[in-house]
Amino acid sequence: MPSRKFADGEVVMGRWPGSVLYYEVQVTSYDDVAHLYTVKYKDGTELALKESDIRSQSSFKHRKSQSSSSSPSRRSSSRSRSRSRSPGRPAKGRRRSASQSREHKEDKKKTIPESSIALPVFVLFKPSENNTKRYNGEPESTEKNATSCIILEQKLKPDVEIKRVLEQYSLRSRKDDKKKEEIYSEKKTFVAVKPIEKVSTKTKEMEFGGRIGTFMLILLLPATVFYLLLMCKQDDPSLLNLPPLPALESLWDWRVFGVIFLWFFLQAAFYLLPIGKVVEGLPLSSGRKLQYRINGFYAFILTAAAIGVLLYFEFELHYLYDHLMQFAVSAAAFSLALSIYLYVRSLKAPEEELAPGGNSGYFIYDFFTGHELNPRIGSFDLKYFCELRPGLIGWVVINLAMLLAEMKIHNLSVPSLSMILVNSFQLLYVVDALWNEEAVLTTMDITHDGFGFMLAFGDLVWVPFVYSLQAFYLVGHPTTITWPVAAAITVLNCIGYYIFRSANSQKNNFRRNPADPKLANLKFIPTATGKGLLVTGWWGFVRHPNYLGDIIMALAWSLPCGFNHILPYFYVIYFICLLVHREARDEHHCKQKYGLAWERYCQRVPYRIFPYIY
């Protein structure tokens, strides 16, 4: 077992991951199993580094002293001593071959800016205090235009050409260069022999109330769905009017389970079709990027065509309304079976493929949050597939079934205005999500959370059966609204959608290309990770403007149901709680990731979701 080289509390130089920059850090702890040091940067950022990424401060000072031998003062003293030599014999340090003489003549023709040579030496060896502050979110000017991101990237990116120029025009003696090559060759030999260390993704902080909280959620989430569906079936869906428990045999039907099974694999077949572009996700902890096929919108079109064929042959789609509880129970059973499969297969997954938030070592917690980050069967990504396909498209199908059931039960030739608004608003939301499917690759669900019961139940049960609650409610409790009220609700939904879509587009465009001329008016705070935090536009208004737009739309979906009961407003109440909790998780992760830069961003943008309120 290798011995530990650096002690706790020792101040050393740590390499920033993915770059050649070294900063002064303090060792806080050491993991004997993974052989990783936890170090703390000056801006408060804590990272786990390998021993090969840490060097003592003396090694940097030693390199600096080597380079100082070619300082102007030393060179001038060398020239003064050479004057005492014979005029016919050149100084020792000034002898050169014919080829070197030709190079010297060419050098005079070239003009090399001093800053371009000084920059790599400055970065590779020991950055000054001002330089360190700039990369940790403390620039001389805390806000920068998006067009200046080109300059920032050029400073951060290791330039091989500049390094070549440095070696070509170095004024150090050959003896120093030879010594330097020997040192580097020894280091290369050492790195080649050293075994590759695995990166530990052990979960240190548990969310959702830990083991007890996640165990309760496994029981409460299905119970909440069944309770809401039973309440909607009652004539008086008041909170105090508890529904009678149905007979157990009435909750299960193998034919319904077969439909759920068929629906899942039909969407899987659409996902595997070789249509749509293939894109890469964000880098994993190992540096590898997974590939994803973007064809969710095509799957929606094919599903709509299949539903159209069923309706043409007079298939009674309102069958969903009559057996909605059975469909929910079957979907819950399917999601539970899928969660068990996901956990069992994750036990054999390599350490680097486990989720950072679901690797606590406790069965209940890891089962709920998801033990494996990206479970795949070949190229079929289970989590990415379930995120948008079966549940989101199923939500639209259930809404359509409720619309047809309303027309049949109330003998209507056309749906009610309330039902049209609810179906239209939610259809727009689903189509937008599928059209902008690529954006989901940067969400916390994909990049951080594992695929366990939380996401499996949420994607396959909670989304289709809770999000369609307003349409289900309107079938048994019709609500009449006037055209002016409908127009006002439509305007409210459009405002929410505009904020939601423009904020997300602004963020995604900035992530793809910060130097886009269309984003030249945006200002940002640079961070140590190389990314920028927007402080203008929607992201300078509140920290999560997309959440604000989401909540406004949720309210617009509930308003067509009137104010007789609070039940149809469950969605907007739940959604506010969900987004406030998610915002707290985002806040915690961003604080760890961006350090002092995030604190500056929070000072610049004080409101989280609701301007002047929260």
From TrEMBL:
Chain intervals for the UniProt region annotation (Disordered): 53-112
Organism for this UniProt entry: Calcarius ornatus
GO CC terms, sorted: endoplasmic reticulum membrane; nuclear inner membrane
Domain Tudor: 4-62
TM regions (residue ranges): 212-231, 251-273, 294-313, 325-344, 455-475, 481-500, 521-542, 562-581
Broadest EC class assigned to this enzyme: oxidoreductase
Taxonomic classification: Eukaryota, Metazoa, Chordata, Craniata, Vertebrata
Segments of skewed composition (Low complexity): 66-75
EC number: 1.3.1.70
Biased composition range(s): Basic residues: 76-97
Protein's membrane topology: Multi-pass membrane protein
Pathway in which the depicted protein is active: Steroid biosynthesis; cholesterol biosynthesis
UniProt record similarity statement: Belongs to the ERG4/ERG24 family.
SUPFAM superfamilies the UniProt entry points to: Tudor/PWWP/MBT
GO process annotations (BP): cholesterol biosynthetic process
Biased composition (Basic and acidic residues): 101-112
Name of this chain's protein: Delta(14)-sterol reductase LBR
